[in-house]
Automatic annotation (TrEMBL):
It is found in: Membrane. One of its GO terms (biological process) is cytoskeletal rearrangement involved in phagocytosis, engulfment. Keywords: Disulfide bond, Glycoprotein, Immunoglobulin domain, Membrane, Signal, Transmembrane, Transmembrane helix. It comes from Paramormyrops kingsleyae. This is Ig-like domain-containing protein. Residues 1-24 form the signal peptide.
Length: 143
């Protein structure tokens, strides 16, 4: 079967409608040099301890594509940089990502995927992070 080029936009629109990827989306703003926390949590009483991964970029359909940190629910199992930390209480399902000493280049989209067992059960939270320079604050309002 061949699909004519002009049909593709319509097909993609249908695909995006039947595959909503991120369930929730938040905006976080932080300042360069500060520790910045991107919130994500799940209910451990309902699901028990489950694996979670964080990725950079839009949340992928099936798994973390560009994974930056992962936990098995008890401890961090992988991370791509010591600047990425899970300092929340994993007992309580707090899998918020803390970025130590944020940099301008940390700005962008992040996805938290809670891997609830079973097909298409994963919880997906997307966070858009904006890091601002401390020196761009409009200090003239102080006078
Ligand atoms: C950032 O977090 C690290 C590690 O938890 C800590 O040592 C440091 O003091 C924190 N920095 C700030 C500015 O809070």
């Amino acid at each position: 079967m061949t699909v004519h080029g002009h049909c593709m936009p319509a097909l993609l629109l249908i695909l995006f409608h039947i595959m909503p990827v991120a369930e929730s989306s938040k905006m976080i703003t932080g300042f360069a040099g500060d520790n910045v926390t991107l919130p994500c949590s799940y209910d451990t009483r309902k699901y028990g301890r489950v694996a979670v991964c964080w990725e950079r970029g839009e949340i992928a359909v099936f798994t973390c594509n560009d994974e930056i940190i992962a936990t098995d629910g008890f401890k961090v199992t992988r991370r791509t940089s010591p600047r990425y930390q899970l300092i929340g209480d994993l007992n309580q399902g707090d899998v918020s990502l803390t970025i130590i000493s944020a940099e301008m280049g940390d700005s962008g989209i992040y996805g938290c995927r809670v891997k609830i067992p079973g097909w298409f059960n994963d919880l997906k939270n997307q966070v858009t992070l904006t890091i601002k320079s401390k020196y761009n604050r409009p200090f003239f309002f102080c006078f």
